Amino acid sequence: MRFAPEYVACVLNENFEDAKALFLEPMMAMHYAHLVMLADCGIVSREDAHTIREALDAVPIAEIRKVCYDGTYEDLFYYIERLVATACDEKVAGRLHTARSRNDIDMTLYRMRQRQYVLSALQASLRLREALLDVASRHRETILALHTHTQPAQPSTVAHYLLAMIEQLERDATRLKAAYETTNRNPLGACAITGTGFPIDRDLTSRLLGFSGPTGNTYGSIATTDYLLENVTATAVLLAGLGRFVQDMLLWSTAEFAYLRIGDGFVQGSSIMPQKRNPVALEHARAIGSKALGEATGILMCIHNTPFGDIVDTEDDLQPLVDRMFHDAARALTLVAAAMASAEFDTARLERRAGEGWITITELSDTLVREHGLAFDTAHAIARRIVQAKSDRPDARISDVLADASAELLGAPIRYSEERVTAILSPRHFVAIRTTHGGPAPDETARAVAASRAALESDGKWLDRTRASLAAAAELLKERSAGL
What we know:
The protein is 67% helix and 4% strand. It contains 19 helices and 4 strands.
């Protein structure tokens, strides 16, 4: 078959290069696993299996990477098939393709590759969690004015803020691990779409390739893309959350805020303005993360409204985009983790800003409710009048303003000393009294940090076990194929 030059240039050549980069090793592993299974089930004789195994051993992986597509074969699969046939009798080599199709081969390769992507994304997110936990541990007492609707709202701590992001990353890990479990099922043996009449053992190929078991319905094994979309969307959720966090860090790094200073290794200067200290690493992380999120959207759009079956829309042309998305996601995560590990906070400025703008006034309302039995709406009205009165009479004593406002609403004044009101309105008091589970009090954030460290350790062990399982499967495959 001679392919049109336009088809070669626009499709086959591109796909061949992509396949060499992404699927060469998984394809060889799949060939060995299928061969072991065929021999084990008596579908291929031990003699022929030995011959084919020797031919597979002779496939020059390093040389294949240098091969340029010449149009005399369709794709990488057929190129390797030609090499195997050349290394042994063509009729014997042809037995390797018994009870399989390029359909189930491709879907197996995609899942093998994507499970590595998911593990890499998870590892990068664990590193970010570790970096943020280290920062949070150092800043449980560092007061911070939190914002709502981009306006200063209530005092908290840097640790409390970071723990919110850390917990989101923990949920991201749950989503990524679930996506991995969905992906780690073996389509090999589904053949074209209906399976095979040969007595194959799909559990064996699953063990040899590190899958937790075979997929179910053979048509669905070829047609479904939900595993891919689960991988992509779990990562997209992570990226969306990461982008919001990076935006805050960039805002905190501005001269106007001056809360945060990242290490010198993550900033650049200006070619004409010597005073500039630009936190460009975080900007790059935001851009790369946005790029990855766009790539995730592109993946969804490629699959959206396609037929539920075997189609090229989900295959050769899509897989490099999947690779690029996960690569960029890992880049963004790694960059933010490294930059935040170098983070320094201006603690004095943070605490000073947390004492401005009446953002502690809620605690005065709460105190009136607790100590005087007022309805919160009434206490809130007193606090609102205090803010207005101090705006009109900035030199007035806060204790006098409280007495006047309460007398106006209650008919009798509530009197606190100036020192007591000042203490109530202190940002540190505001934080210290909020010991609610998940709150900003230092003892509570200490508990939360410890819990998050335990979760990080648990997720790290899951990652290690999962990678060890894949490594053990690879060793088993090597042992079983060598025995042919």
